[in-house]
Design a protein that fits this description.
The protein is mainly α and 209 residues long. The chain is 69% helix and 0% strand. Helix 2 packs antiparallel against helix 3 and helix 3 packs parallel to helix 5. The chain is elongated.
């Protein structure tokens, strides 16, 4: 396909190829080349990341796919696209069936949260940390959740993380935020507060606390 063709058309064509009973050609190599090609639009490169995840299980280029996704996840987001975030999410989903990369994926997400210089990337990294139950970013998540000057999306991601991975001390913070702040923050904090209380109560009943 020509590079100037609308990316959604290319995306639809690739989706049809993925669903075909008999696939022609090695699409993994094509997508890897397009992901690395900076002359491709960031929209299409984002699509390429998503499709590399989809074809991973049947691809003969699994190691190359993982290496490319890790390299992309270690990059920087920009005004047009959070390509590193998309790669991080794809890696997190792949790690669920490929345990050998799980620690590497968790480390990438943790570093992105703790570094904090790329806020868009940190938003996604907190989602990954939530899914992987990474306790290594709890303190940073508390700081971000309570920071009224932080971007709303970052605070919401931190609050969601605490609802899933927080401890007893976070109940008070989430309760406070559920009554003080913007409406989105209040709603997220109320949801997180209820989730955290429910989980802690369950764990206490099971003797885990």
């Amino acid at each position: 396909k020509a590079k100037d063709e609308h990316p959604t058309i290319r995306n639809d064509a690739l989706a049809a190829w993925e669903q075909a009973s008999e696939r022609m050609g090695d699409m993994g190599k094509v997508l890897l080349a397009q992901l690395k090609d900076k002359s491709e639009s960031v929209v299409w490169r984002d699509y390429a990341v998503q499709h590399l995840e989809k074809i991973y299980d049947a691809s003969p280029n699994q190691d190359d796919i993982i290496a490319a996704l890790i390299d992309t996840a270690n990059g920087k987001s920009d005004a047009e696209s959070n390509l590193p975030g998309t790669a991080m999410l794809s890696l997190q989903r792949l790690s669920e069936r490929n345990p050998r990369i799980a620690k590497r994926v968790q480390a990438i997400a943790r570093e992105s949260v703790l570094d904090g210089t790329d806020e868009e990337k940190a938003v996604v990294a907190l989602q990954v940390a939530r899914e992987t139950k990474d306790i290594g970013v709890r303190d940073k998540a508390r700081q971000l959740a309570g920071d009224a000057s932080a971007k709303a999306r970052l605070r919401l991601s931190a609050i969601g993380y605490l609802g899933e991975v927080g401890e007893k001390q976070d109940v008070e913070l989430l309760e406070k935020l559920s009554k003080d702040g913007g409406e989105r923050v209040k709603l997220a904090a109320k949801t997180g507060w209820e989730e955290l209380k429910g989980r802690l109560s369950q764990e206490e009943g099971e003797g885990k606390l």
